[in-house]
Design brief:
The chain is mostly helical and 230 residues long. The chain contains 13 helices and 2 strands. The protein folds into 2 domains: 85 residues, no CATH class; 116 residues.
Length: 230
């Protein structure tokens, strides 16, 4: 870990990136992996220009999809007769678990649900199709974009508001999402740091001083030659 910033506002990010680029620490950055927060992308473009590739982290794409998928499932279930809704109660996990992690019994239950409720079946098939877009190892950015746009067209055919919202997000961030297929860059290590960060806060019962918190985290996760940011 290089630094902890007080907030994620664009001005704060710009000040840090400009200072560290000028100092040489970030002078040779080739790729920046971020989530879908506009200020991150704006700050990176303003400091590094087009020479740096901006990649949306796959984890955050899938997280956003899971949230909208669950909302779509709820919307479909509400449109079913009351008895059918009761029969599906407690089945949420079947739609959110990856197919390879399902037990044999769970696969049988899922197959029965898909048979009884075709729209829910289509929704689950869309989920698996979306995962496969990112699972194929040798996929170019061009091929990835082509497959994602085909998926978007199929998803919109369901006419579900939450899925349409996610499709709009994909289209907005498309160029940065498909950059994932260049190096398959991930923010997995950053998420690990975030978990450790929360553990430190939990063990400390909170920490009102940001500077004390920053130093504690950099000592635990970063370089020991701590430098004050601008």
């Amino acid at each position: 870990m290089l630094e902890i910033l007080k907030n994620r506002e664009k001005e704060t990010l710009l000040a840090y990136l400009q200072f560290q680029r000028a100092s040489g620490l970030l002078a040779h950055v080739e790729e920046v992996t971020i989530d879908m927060w506009g200020a991150y992308a704006d700050a990176v473009r303003m400091v590094f220009g087009s020479q740096v590739r901006i990649t949306i982290d796959r984890f955050h794409v899938m997280k956003g999809f899971q949230e909208q998928l669950d909302a779509a499932r709820r919307q479909l279930q509400k449109s079913l007769p009351e008895e059918a809704g009761k029969a599906l109660k407690g089945m949420r996990y079947l739609f959110l678990k990856n197919r390879e992690t399902l037990t044999e019994q769970e696969r049988e239950e899922l197959a029965e649900i898909k048979k009884l409720f075709p729209e829910l079946g289509r929704l689950h098939d869309l989920r698996e199709a979306f995962r496969r877009v990112f699972e194929i190892r040798k996929r170019s950015t061009r091929a990835g974009e082509h497959r994602l746009r085909a998926w978007i067209a199929e998803a919109r055919n369901l006419g579900i508001k939450s899925l349409n919202t996610f499709c709009h997000t994909l289209e907005t961030w498309m160029s940065s999402i498909v950059n994932y297929f260049v190096n398959r860059a991930s923010n997995g290590q950053t998420e690990g740091f975030n978990h450790k960060l929360r553990v430190v806060l939990w063990r400390s019962f909170g920490m009102p001083s940001f500077e004390h918190f920053r130093l504690r985290i950099l000592d635990a996760c970063g370089k020991h030659s701590i430098q004050r940011s601008p």
